[in-house]
Design a protein that fits this description.
The structure holds two protein chains of two kinds. Chain A is 31% helix and 23% strand. Chain A is an alpha/beta fold. The longest helix of chain B has 18 residues. Chain B is α/β, with parallel strands linked by helices. Chain B starts with a strand and ends with a helix. Chain B folds into two domains: 187 residues, P-loop containing nucleotide triphosphate hydrolases (Rossmann fold, 3-Layer(aba) Sandwich); 66 residues, no CATH class. The chains are: A alpha/beta, B alpha/beta.
Chain lengths: 324, 324
């Protein structure tokens, strides 16, 4: 069943906080707000990119959407069903619709299982197929991602990194999910192998009508594979919109700084990457007001006191007091 | 004046099938004040080249089996350990990819940088402390007095990499080897670190070998490039001409397979290089790239091509390029 408005996933005001370990029981409780008020809308067949530096909350966000974590605030609606606090059978049903592709294909596959068993595992757990049917489907999936029937009988260590990531993708597709979350799907792979995996993901998306959420720090990859992009800074989305809009006309100073920091591929256009000063602040004690203000070239008194609201023009969201 | 000249270098490692060459016939040179980029994927031999120059190949598992490394008029191959130790950290320094694993977790940043001076016989007194402080200022670490007393886990990745660079610069070396210095860092911090290395190159007239797999970094931060594949240099030349007019099929394929920011056309697929990177044990007599190459000829499987100049300063090792 699909929601009437064509939305596959809607995330409203999502927040997840972790308690910081106290040194003594008399110390006040402190929390890290890893994700703090995030709104996302994903249509059927759409690919959303999530960009941010390490520690910004991208992975926590993905784990909340998959309901590997239960968020402390907000609402997650998948295909018209509220799964924010789903449990038991309801949660298993939701998980059938969304699957995960991990960053490191060396660490995410059980070395004792053959490729066919790895892909069959989710079928055994969550489908009603017989053993023989599940086997055939697993081999079919491995063929779909570019491996052979003979290779299906091999163990993970007999495959290269790119082939392992293909197994990871086949495994994610086993239950016919509608949404696949991929956390840095190619960053552990060799450069000449990345294009193979990105092209495979694009082909599968067209063939199976998948929606993707792709987490990456590589802006060129986001530019290439995504329709929309959300830029996250310290647990908040600072800018969101169509990739072409956001990357060609970035409105938030942080997005501008990220884009300017990417070294240009053409040596004839030599320009020193514009530097953004400082590091990501300590998330247990985020700065008041706009959390980006200590690093922002445009920061004013207002930014130091008041957190900016998100404003939307032509489907392009920005949370900044002084957007371009 | 040529500072470093590597000639026909071969380094082999013990494998179950006997010693196998990880690099084979590698030649290049670096001048003072110049940045040479070495580009390659895992297994291409780029890190082995760096470790060979540093004399850091563990004699238990491997050895330099041929060629010479001439540094400032002196061959480093076959130097005694004490002679190497006098050079390392003083005239040749190295910055590693992952600063967290390269730093000792049990000692403060100040002690670890100071240790360079102790190792070279300069003691750990107040004078050394002052020099460490100066180094931290040189690499633009904010609050250098505070960082001195911190342990590696207490500071950010960007700060750790700056501390590593400070350590490498302790004696103002002639040659700095940076092996993927920013791969573990976020893009905004990457820009800070690369701009720092570039500034130091200008101020201190360092020769720099920058090992990377990122085409953008090569384009923006190197003067000349050597592209490595399967333990050999397959193409070399000035960054500007090599990147705009690559001659070797591997370089051509690599440049075409990498997504570039702002170059996307909707629905377009990336160009793939088929196959996978060869492993050190399956090395064939001919060109190492032949099995993945679209222009493979019978000669490619029989005889390894040598580097031949194709444009001013630009040479490719390829039979197809030579025939074209």
């Amino acid at each position: 069943m699909s929601a009437p408005d064509g939305l596959l996933l809607e995330v409203n005001d999502l927040a997840m906080r972790y308690a910081v370990r106290r040194r003594s029981p008399f110390e006040a409780r402190r929390y890290v707000h890893a994700v703090n008020g995030i709104d996302i809308r994903l249509r059927h067949g759409e690919t959303l990119g999530i960009v941010g530096e390490s520690g910004c909350g991208k992975t926590t966000l993905a784990r909340c959407i998959l309901r590997l974590l239960e968020p402390t605030r907000g609402r997650i609606v998948l295909n018209g069903r509220d799964i924010t606090h789903a449990k038991g059978g309801e949660l298993r049903a939701a998980r059938r619709d969304m699957q995960f592709v991990f960053q490191d294909p060396y660490a995410s596959l059980d070395p004792r299982l053959r490729a066919v068993d790895l892909v069959r595992e989710p079928l055994d757990a969550l489908s009603t197929l017989s053993r023989a049917e599940a086997n055939e489907r697993a081999i079919g999936l491995l063929e779909k991602v570019g491996l052979t029937r003979a290779q299906a009988q091999r163990y993970p260590h007999q495959f290269s990194g790119g082939q392992r990531q293909r197994i990871g993708i086949a495994r994610a597709l086993a239950l016919n999910p509608k949404l696949v979350l991929a956390d840095e799907p190619v960053s552990a792979l060799d450069v000449s192998i990345r294009a193979q995996i990105l092209n495979l993901m694009a082909a599968l998306r067209e063939e199976l009508g998948l929606s993707y959420i792709v987490i990456s720090h590589d802006l060129a990859i986001i530019d290439h594979v995504c329709d929309r992009v959300a830029i996250i800074y310290l647990g908040r989305i600072v800018e969101q919109g169509e990739v072409a809009d956001v990357f060609n006309r970035p409105r938030h100073p942080y997005t501008q700084a990220l884009l300017a920091a990417v070294p240009h591929h053409d040596p004839r256009q030599r320009r020193r990457a514009a530097e953004i000063v400082g590091d990501l602040p300590n998330p247990t004690a985020p700065p008041p007001g706009c959390t980006f203000h200590p690093r922002c070239p445009k920061a004013t008194d207002l930014c130091k006191r008041v957190a900016p609201q998100t404003t939307t023009t032509d489907g392009h969201d920005v949370a900044c007091h002084h957007p371009d | 004046m040529t500072l470093l000249s590597v000639n026909n270098l071969a380094t082999e490692f013990n494998t179950q099938a006997g010693p196998r060459r990880a690099i084979d016939g590698v030649s290049f040179s670096v001048e003072r004040g110049e940045v040479l980029g070495i580009v390659g994927e895992s297994g291409s031999g780029k890190s082995v080249t760096a470790l060979s120059i540093m004399g850091l190949i563990d004699p238990q598992v491997g050895r330099i089996s041929g060629g010479s490394i001439t540094f400032d008029g002196r061959d480093l191959v076959g130097l005694k350990l004490a002679e190497l130790q006098a050079l390392r950290g003083k005239r040749i320094s190295m910055v590693f990819q992952e600063p967290l694993s390269a730093l000792n977790p049990c000692f403060t940043i100040g002690d670890q940088i100071g240790e360079v001076f102790v190792a070279h016989g300069d003691g750990a007194g107040a004078a050394t402390r002052a020099r460490v402080l100066e180094l931290l200022k040189l690499v633009h670490i904010p609050d250098p007095e505070g960082i001195l007393r911190r342990y590696p886990h207490e500071i950010s990745g960007g700060m750790r990499q700056r501390a590593m660079i400070a350590m490498a610069l302790a004696y103002t070396p002639d040659l700095l080897i940076a092996d993927e210095p920013t791969t573990a860092l976020d893009v905004t911090i990457q820009a800070q670190v690369l701009n720092l290395i570039d500034r130091l190159r200008q101020e201190l007239k360092l020769a720099v070998i920058l090992i990377t797999h990122d085409i953008g970094i090569v384009a923006q931060y190197t003067d000349r490039v050597a592209v490595m594949y399967g333990g050999r240099i397959v193409e070399t030349g000035p960054a500007e001409t090599l990147l705009s007019a690559p001659r070797h099929p591997y370089t051509i394929g690599l440049l075409a397979s990498v997504p570039r920011l702002g170059a996307r056309r909707p629905g377009e697929r990336l160009q793939e290089i088929p196959g996978t990177v060869p492993s050190i044990t399956e090395i064939l007599p001919g060109c190492r790239f032949a099995s993945r190459c679209a222009h493979r000829m019978s000669r490619c499987d029989e005889q390894a091509p040598a580097l031949v100049e194709r444009a001013p300063g630009q040479a490719a090792a390829c039979w197809w390029t030579e025939a074209a």
